[in-house]
Structure formats: structure tokens, C-alpha cells
Write a structure and sequence with these properties.
alpha+beta; 632 residues; Aldehyde Ferredoxin Oxidoreductase Protein, subunit A, domain 3; 6-stranded mixed sheet; homodimer; Aldehyde Ferredoxin Oxidoreductase Protein, subunit A, domain 2; Aldehyde Ferredoxin Oxidoreductase,  A, domain 1; 3 domains
Chain lengths: 632, 632
């Protein structure tokens, strides 16, 4: 078995209650590597076309990568793959924490979960062994409680638990998988999938005996030491100090902080919900993921007022500050931190949750949703109390929350009355807090990304400072203004999408590795992969793996009839110019996006009419078997 | 100016007799790097559509690369680019020797030659300066004589001279550029282009003052030392001992040595024309190119019998042994060495020359060409005397040689009588001595290569031993049998074509660097590029540069109306099964090749109907300007 892996994939059939271990060969590992591509391999082979995302025929795959658990920053990542109940196409989501490394140390590279248990169960993994246990007593409980109960039951103080909260049990379409009660595989509703299977949790306990071997520990140690020594002077220093929230104020100043459901890119209350404010007022400590020196995670504590926050539930990320904050016109940091806590207790994606509420607020402001719908709640921009209440109601699927739990796109279809006009989502997934209006390539990637709008599927627009060195290694040598979407920019988006796709397959954190601003550059990622696996990995090989995974994502969607027609930005972006701030007056052009899509599909070798992979495209990444499967 | 370059391109206008120096910026150098892509940049910008290849509007570009002249193996290469008088499309050819390094040390990265001189001239370059001098007294003289005369005239004993022989003066369509009187830019008729411009020679004298700086001399020295120390145990050891001729016998045994104009892949006389025989009987010494430890060049001497050979004209390569030997059914090593000498004296490509004679021999055997045509010569397979005579007659364009000097494809058109059936050429260029019958990907590359059949434009079929490590770095992880041309094989051909294209642009020798069998692997090439240029070059960047150059080649041809229709293998391959030896009975399938072409064009993002680049393909390698130029 190659270094970095166990060569052991656990197959769980919940319907039959069986547990089996598959031992793929080295060729499989080098070709699909880990994370998302490995997950997609099983998703494509095992999920039947037309499967109900919340039915037993859906398959949930949890995967690590070769570097997971290695003593270096940014490697403890878990990828979840399944058909998405939010988008109806492929679902794909990453998280950090200690769980991914611990899963590896328990003796598994990944878990493939099929079927549905008759009664709630949880999975208990340790020392290379797996066991299904009754979870009836855990059902309905929030994440913190469940952690305590499982640890107590198993008599283990130090262990890691991945679980669905009550939101996942109830099929909230953007329910998350939670670990440590504060790390989320947030996007595309993976929590709803696990909940639908009556699988409440996965508890893992690692041991040093089950640490996979590293090919060149000395080389790895050196790179690791380099990271620790260079963090302060690196571009990741700000991330270490203020976490992702470091960008709240710069985004607003640059006209790129979505405000009042994307009416504006400037939020007058940005300072009040900023990373600096959080640092000064409610930060308890900085937390980290296994083995990472950056410590970007926030842990906040609020002991007074209406919004008390328990530090075990962590603290809000930039995205959360934006979606519960500026999206909703709310500048109450405590309320946002509290909404974040609800999401972590009940297991929900903060982006989709906050953005769905912001959409409902705009509809309310326009009179399309009224207190009759909301049960008396004045769901207006700026009403922090209403936002918090609605978050709770969604988590519990209570009242109007039961409709919003479907996500903004489905809720608009249920409600009608023209509320669709205000939906800011792609393929049913709400758009995260980076604005294509001021970083034009993002518009293309939001539109074409197979699992809906996502801000971690490509490098954001060219950072001139990063040219020529860091970008030139990717052969990106011609910087283009952030406000332009020409052929070269499409190339930038395409190539960096492949690279980010590779990072989700190697399964590493995009805040640590990357072409432009992170601690380690792409070449260092390659060196680390070499040190861990002993393979002579190159940037080219990584990009091809990334391209392979992207083709697998598109192929899954193609099978479900999802293609170019669904690669659409929200209508609002083309109809309504931004108001105020530096991006005042900016409006996107649908024609420009469609032209960029033409180029993008062609650059990927896909059918330009349908946006779906061709046989040639699949063969070009050694996926002939997939072309056969699709009947191409 | 970046390390490795001067930042100086000499522009010569022969019509006006002007000399100018252009100083491009670093961006230009990193984007086009050198060699072929740099040559194509000027070819596309300066050669008008429909230009007569032998008219003054054609432009001949001679380029080096960043590593040319650096103290390491395999870097002293010269690329010649112009519209080809042999194919009517783009022409492209590489050579080694000492001239390329000396050109660099004279102060120039490349030379762009336009127009036509009224009277014969030669160019004299030294110390960063350039001068045009009268060459009337050199016209009509053979290469050795010209070298002596120029050295005498300039009073320099040590200098390097690139020149056309009498064949180039007379427009033999496969005339070569010669340097050291024994190194040839052999293919695509670049000698005819230079001859048509009345430019007889380019004499260069370097000085240590004009050596470009290297970014990291220590790192380069280490790699260089590694090469010297590991040569004996490397796959290049055989090349060092026997030169390219090491493969004569293995090719024949494997059924891959073209015999009697491709009637068979097995030559019963292979042993007699083998590298071993040459080594034992006529080898005088092993020669090398500037700075290279491999010493693959043969120097032979024959002092007795009808075929005396002067060592100054070197010795035959594998290709020459095949085309004048097995192609013609000739096992007389002395006769072959003598024909090789004629080619080097008069300046002709040995591949096209020998292959054209072999074609004429087959026509003669079938009675389609008679002694009436040949002036009494019995042009039969196995007739060494006739082969030698015909080589002389072609060089001088005498009698029937005047027709054969047009190359086999044009000669067949002139003669008619069904002689076309026996032509073994693609786009008018004769097929070299590697048989797609036993290395199936070569059939595809022979067909689609923009400047006609070429054996140095991709890796020959998968060498299993090289998997997984050396090929895996290119993400080629699934070896395919040599006799299969499936999707994965097309991918192999496509990706390695990009890599070989990159090597012709970085401008290094494919016998030294490469994915499979050479002294240095691709990663070491990258390390060397980094040491020389200081750029953070990656394998991906190199592949993209290679892809850029390939798109430029295709774009040039597209402008000339050359596309898929011309991407045709010789009919003979589909009509006539091989006879005898290990490949007995093998015949190629046109349908298989057409299917492979479909995939190949699509994998490159080109129009599958026409085989020409699309705007998306050009934009995908940052060549938007070229898409504009083509009106796409």
C-alpha cells in the first residue's frame, strides 16, 4: 500500500446492517487520490440515476486524503459526497477539525454509507474495526449533548464525533455534518442525507499504531518547520490573527460585501461585525485543526444579554458574519454569534441559512411575504431578533421555518407571488459572500460550478501582486483587471478551478495551500505530497486530478439532466445595479456571462450546447469507463 | 533581462541589406521561451498568407532557448522556422552541434531573416555585432570547402558556421541547413528557404563576455555532475556507445524497421548496417554537441574502395541507415555512409532523400518508372550503386534527380502512372523509420503533425518499464499495449506531443531529456530550467508552452487552408499488410485512425471537422491575438 494511505475503505450498508472493508490497489489511490474524486468514484458507481437524495438509494461517501493526519498544516480535512437534497445534483462539501485525522488514525481512508437503518444508529470506529450501535437515545439531541453522551457511553474522553443535528434529522435541505460541534461540512445538505439514513453519528478513536507511514518524514518535517517559521511574514498572517473575518471591512470598502440580499456591496455596519471587533469584544481563543499552525478558527464567548454563546460551539466565520449580518442588514455581532451557535447546535449551513433569511427579508420588505406567513414576525432588514428567531424556526422546521428549511429557491416556488425574483442562488444553493460584480471570474464559476454557487472552487480574481511568480507556475502570465471577463480571465478561472478541484481531492485546506495568498504555494503542496506519498507528483499531475474530479462532477449532473440550462446566475445580478459604496452602479451582463460560458465549456472540452462532458473530455482524463457508463 | 537570455533578437532584411536588433521584454521570453514557439511568433506575424516558400516574402527564423550554451548536456540546439517548400505549410526543424551555443555567445537569442539578397551574401556575427558580407565566391561550393574559405577569410580558426550547400541553392525541397558540415536542420526544407534568399552562410564567433548569466550556477553544476556520473547506468548508455544506430537490430527484430519502401518491418540485412557493425568497422570517433556528455554522434572514416568517407562529414544516424539502407533494401554500410556524406556536403535531409529514392525504387520494380526516366540507371531495391548515384543527381538536380529533388509526393504528381500509390509521406514529407504498425500512437502523430510525418513530436508508444513513475508525473497512469489505439493511447499521444513540443521550445535535445528513456527526466528538465532562468517553472508550465506552440503550428497551417483533410497517413498503410518478421500481416485501419483523430482534435479543443484551432483553444493558451488574426 502506498505511503499516506491505509488502503482500507469501509463500506457500511445500513439497510442490512453489514460492514465490509475494501482494499483498493495503489493505482486506484494515485488516480483518484482521495477527497472529492474518490468520493465521486463511489457516487458514480453506486448512486442510481434519479435517486431520491433523501431516500435509501442515495450513498454518502466520507473521504480523507493522503496527507490527512500528517504532521503539517492544513491537512485534516473531510470530504462528504452524495446526491444533494438542495441542488438535486451532485453534493460535495469539505470540513476541517480533528475528526478527519482521527478517522485516519482509526484505520480508515474513507467510509461509503448505503441504505437506511430501521432505527437510529451510530458508527463506532477504532483500531481498524467498525461497529454499528443503537442511537435511539441520541435522536433529537443537539450536537454538544450528543458528544457528551457518546463519550460517556464509550468511556472515552478523547475521541472525535461527526454527527447530524436535529436539522439533519428533520431534512433541512441545507443541514450540515458537524464535528467538534463547531466544524461543518456545511454546503449542499450532506447533513440531511446522513439524517435520512437514520445515521446519527460516527465516533472515531485513533491510535498511534494506525498512523499511516510517511515516505520521507525528514522532508515533511522541514516543510512543516518552514511553515511555522514563515507564518508571521506570510500572507496567511492576517488569517491567523483575525481568522476569515479579517476581510469583512476590506470587502465592504472595496464594494464587495453583499448587503441587504445583494442590493449593495457596501455595508455601513461593517465595522461593527468585523474581525477586529470580534477580536476585541467576544473572542475567547483561537482554535485550530489537527496539526495546523495557522489557528484561524474563532472561539467566542458571550455571558450576558439575550445572546449567550457557549465557546464549545466556536464562533462565526466571515461567511457567517456576512450572511447573518450584512445580507440581513444586521450589525449586531452578538446576534450573529448566537445564530451561528444555533446552526452549530442543530447542524445547519450558515451560508444558506443566513442567505435564505435575507431573501425572505427582501420579500417581506416588498410585501410579498407578510406577518401572516411568518406568524407575526416582522422579518425586516436589520431586525436581529427576527433573524435569530427565524434561524431557530428553520432548525426545528417550525412554522414559516418549515418553508425556509427548503432553501430560498424551493421556498420561492412554494410561496410564489414573484418572490423568485429575489432569490440569490445557483442550482438552488445560496450564493456566498464574494461578489462577482467586483471579481468577475467568480460570476462564471458561480454559474458553472456543478454543486451550485461556491466560493472555494477557484482562485478569486487575479491578485496582481501574485503575478508573475505564483501564477506563472500555472502558466498564467497575463493579469486581467478584476472588472473584466475576457478570454484570458476565463482561462484563469478554468485553470484555477482545476487546481482548487485538486485541493479538494488531495483533500487539503485552501486557506493553507494555494496559488496566490496562502501560507504554502502550489509547489510546496507538490513537495509535501511527494514527502508523504513517495510518488513523484507534479503540478501537472495535480491539475489533471483536479480536472478528472471536475469531469466526474459534471458527469454525475449530466446523468441527472443538469447542464448548461442550470448554469445560471441569479436574475437579480442582471436586473439590478448595486447601490452605494465603491461598486455603486455595477450590474452584470448576462451576455458577457453566456460568452464566457461558451469559452469555458470549450476549454474543458465539453459540449457547448449542453455543458456536459464529451467522450473526448472524459478520455482526456482517463475516464473512458465513465463515457461508457453515460453511453457517450 | 531574464537569466539565460540576452534579450536581443537580430532582424536581417536581405532585400534592403538592413540589420536591426529587437529587445523584447521578459514577459515575451517567458511566454514563448525560445526555439519553436519563438520562431512561430515571428512566422505568424511576418509571413503573409499564401507566401511562396521560396520567395522573398517567406521569413526564416533561427532561434535558441534559455538553456542554449549553459554548461549541461543536450542544450546546444538550433530551431529553424519558416513556411516549408516541402509541405506548403509550416516548416520546423532542429539541429545540434556547436553552432547554437556559439550563436548565443556571439550575443544573440535568435535571428529573423526576411527578403532576398540581390547577390549571394553571408552573415558574420561576433561580439553582439552583425555584418552582411559578399558570398559570391562561396556559391556552388560544398559545405566543407565553405567552412575552410570563411575561416580563412575571417582569419578565425575557431568559429561556427551554419550554411546551405548546393542543394539548398538549387531549391531541393528537402535541402537542409548544415553546421559543422555534419549537423543538419534536416527536415521540412529549411535549407531551400535560406538558399532562396541568397544567404549562403551564417558565421558566428562567441566570446566569454557574451555568455548569458545563469540564475543558480551551483544548482546547474550539480545537475550537470549528476548527468556525467549517471550516464553509464542510465537508459542513455546505449546511445552513448552506439549512437542512434543502436536500435537498427532491435527495430528489425521487433518488426519495426521499414524495409523496401515499407513492404516489411523486418530487414534480413539489418546486422550488416547495424550500430555494432559501424562501431567495429568504420567508426573513427564519437563526437558530441557543445557541453553534452552523451557523445551520441558518429564519426566514420573509409579510406578504401569506391565509397571513401572523410570524417569531417560525420557518420550516419539510425534514420540514415534505415532510409538509405533498409528502405532501399541495401545492406552495404559503406555505400550508406557515402550517401550520408553526399547529403552533408550538399546539404540535404537524409530521411527525405533516402525515402524518396526508396519510393522510386518500388515504382521501378513495378515498372512505373523505367530506365528511360532514370537515364539508364537500374533503380532496383538492393542496388547500392544506383542509390548513391541518385543521391548525387538529386543534390545537383541532374537528370531524374531533378524530379526526385521535389520529394516523393511532388515527383509522383509529376510522373503520374499510378506512382502515387507507393508514396510514403504525410503532407509531402517522407515518413521516418519508426513504424506505426508496431507503435500505434505514432500513426496518429504522423497524421496530425503540422509539418508532416515526424518521429520526434511525441513519445513513442508506452514503454511499460517507464510506468508508473516517469509517466505518472504526466498523469499517464494507464499503460496500453503498443498495438492498440484506444482513448487512453490518444491521450498518451496528445500529452507527450505537448511535452515534446515544449522541448522544441525550451530548445533541448530529446535524446537527453524526456519522460521515458533519456538521461534526464522531465522533472530534472524543470530543475535545470529553474537553475538557468530563476523562474519557478513547473511541468505544467512547460506543457502549456508546448501546447501553445502546437496551436501556433496548427494556426499557421489553418491560414494556409491545411487542416484535417491533410492529416492523412499514406494509403499504403491501409492497403498493404506488412510481410515477414514479427510484424508479418499487420495492416493499419483507416477507420481506427479517423476515430483517433476525432478524439485527438477534441482533446486539443480544435474543430473536429477541420482540425483547426478554435478561439477557445487559442484563448486557452493565452493566444487571443492569434484568434483575432485568424478572424475566429
Amino acid at each position: 500500500m502506498p505511503y499516506g494511505y491505509h488502503g482500507r475503505i469501509l463500506h457500511v450498508d445500513l439497510t442490512n446492517g453489514t460492514l465490509e472493508i475494501e482494499t483498493p490497489d495503489e493505482h486506484f489511490y494515485r488516480k483518484y487520490m482521495g477527497g472529492s474524486a474518490m468520493g465521486l468514484y463511489y457516487a458514480l458507481k453506486l448512486i442510481p440515476q434519479g435517486a431520491d437524495p433523501l431516500g435509501p438509494e442515495n450513498v454518502l461517501i466520507l473521504t480523507t486524503g493522503p496527507m490527512t493526519g500528517a504532521p503539517v498544516s492544513g491537512q485534516s480535512r473531510l470530504t462528504a459526497t452524495a446526491k444533494s437534497p438542495l441542488t438535486g445534483g451532485i453534493g460535495d462539501s469539505q470540513s476541517g477539525g480533528y475528526f478527519p485525522a482521527e478517522l485516519k488514525f482509526a484505520g480508515f481512508d474513507g467510509i461509503v454509507i448505503r441504505g437506511r437503518a430501521e432505527k437510529p444508529v451510530y458508527l463506532w470506529l477504532h483500531d481498524g474495526e467498525a461497529e454499528l450501535r443503537d442511537a435511539s437515545h441520541l435522536w433529537g439531541k443537539v450536537t454538544g449533548e450528543v458528544e457528551d453522551l457518546i463519550k460517556q457511553e464509550l468511556g472515552e474522553k478523547k475521541m472525535e464525533i461527526l454527527q447530524v443535528g436535529p436539522a439533519g434529522e428533520k431534512g433541512v435541505r441545507f443541514a450540515a455534518l458537524m464535528n467538534m460541534a463547531n466544524r461543518a461540512n456545511g454546503r449542499t445538505g450532506m447533513g440531511a442525507v446522513m439524517g435520512s439514513k437514520n445515521l446519527k453519528a460516527i465516533a472515531v478513536k485513533g491510535s498511534s499504531k494506525w498512523r499511516p507511514k510517511v515516505a520521507d518524514p525528514k522532508a515533511l518535517r522541514e516543510i512543516s518547520r518552514w511553515g511555522a517559521q514563515n507564518l508571521e511574514s506570510s500572507d496567511a498572517a492576517g488569517l491567523a490573527l483575525l481568522g476569515t473575518s479579517e476581510i469583512v471591512v476590506p470587502q465592504s470598502k472595496g464594494g464587495g460585501l453583499p448587503t441587504r440580499n445583494w442590493e449593495s456591496g457596501y455595508f455601513e455596519g461593517a465595522e461593527k461585525i468585523s474581525g477586529e471587533r470580534m477580536y476585541n469584544e467576544i473572542l475567547k481563543e483561537r482554535d485550530t485543526c489537527y496539526g495546523c499552525v495557522i489557528r484561524c478558527k474563532r472561539v467566542v464567548e458571550i455571558n450576558e444579554g439575550p445572546y449567550k454563546v457557549d465557546p464549545r460551539y466556536g464562533g462565526p466565520e466571515y461567511e457567517t458574519l456576512a450572511t447573518f449580518g450584512s445580507y440581513c442588514g444586521i450589525d449586531d455581532l452578538h446576534a450573529i454569534a448566537y445564530a451561528n451557535q444555533i446552526c452549530n447546535m442543530y447542524g445547519m449551513d450558515t451560508i444558506s441559512c443566513g442567505a435564505t433569511i435575507a431573501w425572505a427579508m427582501e420579500c417581506f420588505e416588498h410585501g410579498l411575504i407578510t406577518t401572516e406567513d411568518t406568524g407575526g414576525i416582522e422579518l425586516r432588514f436589520g431586525n436581529a431578533e427576527a433573524m435569530v428567531k427565524m434561524t431557530e424556526m428553520i432548525a426545528k422546521r417550525e412554522g414559516f421555518g418549515d418553508i425556509l428549511a427548503e432553501g430560498s429557491a424551493r421556498a420561492a416556488q412554494i410561496i410564489g407571488r414573484g418572490t423568485e425574483e429575489f432569490v440569490v442562488a445557483v442550482k438552488g444553493q445560496e450564493v456566498p459572500a464574494h461578489m462577482p460584480h467586483v471579481k468577475r471570474s467568480l460570476g462564471l464559476i458561480y454559474a458553472v460550478n456543478p454543486f451550485g454557487a461556491d466560493h472555494q472552487s477557484s482562485e478569486h480574481d487575479p491578485a496582481y501582486k501574485a503575478y508573475p511568480e505564483r501564477m506563472a507556475a500555472l502558466d498564467l502570465k497575463d493579469p486581467v483587471s478584476r472588472l473584466v471577463l475576457n478570454g484570458e480571465k476565463v482561462r484563469f478561472a478554468t485553470v484555477t478551478q482545476w487546481l482548487y478541484s485538486a485541493m479538494d481531492t488531495v483533500n487539503v485546506c485552501q486557506f493553507v495551500y494555494g496559488p496566490a495568498w496562502q501560507l504554502y504555494d502550489t509547489e510546496q503542496l507538490v513537495q509535501m505530497m511527494r514527502a508523504v506519498t513517495g510518488w513523484n507528483v507534479t503540478v501537472h499531475e495535480l491539475l489533471e486530478v483536479g480536472r478528472r474530479r471536475l469531469n466526474m462532477l459534471r458527469a454525475f449532473n449530466a446523468r441527472e439532466g443538469i447542464g448548461r440550462d442550470q448554469d445560471k446566475l441569479p436574475k437579480k445580478f442582471f436586473k439590478q445595479a448595486l447601490k452605494g459604496g465603491k461598486s455603486d452602479g455595477i450590474i452584470l451582463s448576462e451576455e458577457e456571462i453566456e460568452r464566457a460560458k461558451d469559452l469555458y465549456y470549450a476549454m474543458n472540452g465539453w459540449d457547448v450546447e449542453t455543458g456536459t462532458p464529451t467522450r473526448a473530455a472524459l478520455e482526456s482524463v482517463s475516464l473512458g469507463w465513465l463515457a461508457d457508463m453515460l453511453g457517450l
